[in-house]
Design a protein that fits this description.
With 302 residues, the chain is of the alpha/beta class. The chain has 10 helices and 10 strands. It has 2 domains: 6-130, Rossmann fold, CATH 3.40.50.2300; 145-296, Histidine kinase-like ATPase, C-terminal domain (Heat Shock Protein 90, 2-Layer Sandwich). Helix 2 packs parallel to helix 3 (65-74).
Length: 302
């Protein structure tokens, strides 16, 4: 995984753009600057693979940030690039609009340099992981069209990534499904079996200690034997994935949609993103340690 991001900075205020560019480049990132949304769209359209992260001002001339964000998330070539919205608007309606359109993070001015750098690094890590997963999906064969049902048991993150990649091949749109499957499996491991709380994950991400803490907790006696159980079923017209962890559950109701109070956290949007972009239905059960995801499939007439 690369440590330095190729960033498209879309910012019409010259002073702000200069400050951001100097800060990001001082930490090893390469920055390409556009002063309006139309110019940014032309560059993205011409080079859809040369950008890892987009830092986007919401209020701009010609094509504003929300207009550009919508175009990005509607383009299959660009949809997975994380977009960090930068704005002075901090009202709940503006925040929710951006998150629901697929923004990775909502950064309000004046921003803190440490937070900005942490957000960029986290977004880069996620994008590199997503790109790696998609490449594996594209390169793999799809001999699983006759696969009807299956049960799986996993323990750690690498096993979760492998299983997400495997199950994505069963789906009619693997690139759409793989992100949601991985999100649910990661959530079952870290928040479920390893009992890393929401607040703890935020602190760990900011400190760059999240992965190390996961490896550490996997060795704790109380967590060492815990497994995540996954069941796949193919039914007429849909695929069903059921994921069960051995944790205490969580208040899943507040994570099915984009909550404005979590808009400035480094995480917390994965379940809502999975429900919006990867699955046709997503339902948690009981205390929250059981989740069912549904993907519709064409019904073949006999």
């Amino acid at each position: 995984m690369r440590a330095h991001a190729r960033i498209l900075l879309v910012e019409d205020e010259a002073l702000t753009a200069t400050i951001l560019k100097e800060l990001l480049e001082a930490h090893g990132h390469s920055v390409r600057h556009c002063s309006d949304g139309e110019d940014a769209w032309l560059q993205l359209d011409a080079d859809s693979t040369g950008i890892d992260v987009i830092l986007l001002d919401r209020n701009m001339p010609k094509l504003d940030g929300m207009g550009l964000l919508k175009r990005i998330k509607q383009d299959p070539r660009l949809v997975h690039i994380p977009v960090i919205l930068e704005t002075v608007q901090s009202d709940q309606e503006s925040i929710l609009e951006g998150l629901r359109q697929g923004a990775y993070y909502y950064l309000t001015k004046p921003w803190q340099p440490q937070v900005l750098l942490a957000v960029v690094q986290t977004a880069l890590h996620q994008f590199e992981e997503v790109r790696h997963l998609i490449e594996r999906v594209r390169c793999a064969q799809r001999p699983l069209s006759l696969f009807q049902t299956g049960s799986f048991s996993l323990r750690n993150m690498e096993e979760g990534r492998l299983l997400a990649n495997y199950l994505a091949h069963v789906c009619p749109e693997p690139e759409r499904a793989i992100l949601g499957l991985q999100e649910l499996l990661v959530n079952a491991i870290e928040h479920g079996n390893l009992e890393i709380s929401y607040a703890e994950k935020g602190r760990l991400l900011l400190a760059g200690e999240w992965q190390r803490e996961i490896e550490r907790r996997l060795q704790w006696p109380q967590f060492r034997e815990r497994r995540v159980e996954v069941r796949f079923d193919r039914d007429p017209g849909f695929l069903r994935f059921t994921i069960i962890d051995q944790g205490q559950g969580f208040d899943w109701r507040s994570y099915l949609d984009f909550a404005p109070e979590r808009a400035f956290d480094l995480h917390g949007r994965g379940i809502a993103m999975a429900g919006k972009f990867s699955f046709d239905a997503l339902q948690y059960h009981g205390a929250g340690n059981v989740v069912t995801a549904i993907i519709h499939t064409p019904v073949v007439a006999v």
